[in-house]
Description:
Residues 1-20 form the signal peptide. It comes from Cyclobacterium lianum. This is Lipoprotein. Keywords: Signal. This protein has helices at 2-20, 32-37, 50-56, 65-72, and strands at 77-82, 85-91, 108-113, 119-125. The chain is an alpha+beta fold. It has a single domain, classed as Beta-lactamase Inhibitory Protein, Chain:B, domain 1 (2-Layer Sandwich). Strands 1-2-3-4 form a 4-stranded antiparallel beta sheet, with helices on one face. The radius of gyration is 17 Å and the shape is globular.
Amino acid sequence: MKYSCSFLYLTFICAFVLFSCTSKLDAGNIDLEAWKKDRDGCLGLRLQHTEELQRIKNTFLAKYNQEIIKTFGRPDRVELVDKSQSFFIYFLEPSDECGLKMEKEPLKVLFRLNAISKVSEVTITSLNP
Length: 129
């Protein structure tokens, strides 16, 4: 019992150090304050950064999910595909949460995260994961 408490305590300390040491990533010319204000893409502020995002998207590969959250804010949606991968979704165009009638799927940024919470793919698409 003593060893399991020590192991649990050590695991907690390691996780705390790992996640507290993450910092914001370089997002190029993207206005991150405007990005964070534009939840679900309802204001249309994110759409103007599509080209910049396309240019720098590969710099986010192998980054931890906490770094993505610190940079872009809480994702608009998180989809768990299976135990080994999930997606962070940020809408560039207004989503169905904006109260608008949707004629097509909105443009969005998908960050695919692997089992160890690292980004394995970044896609700008209107398709769902």
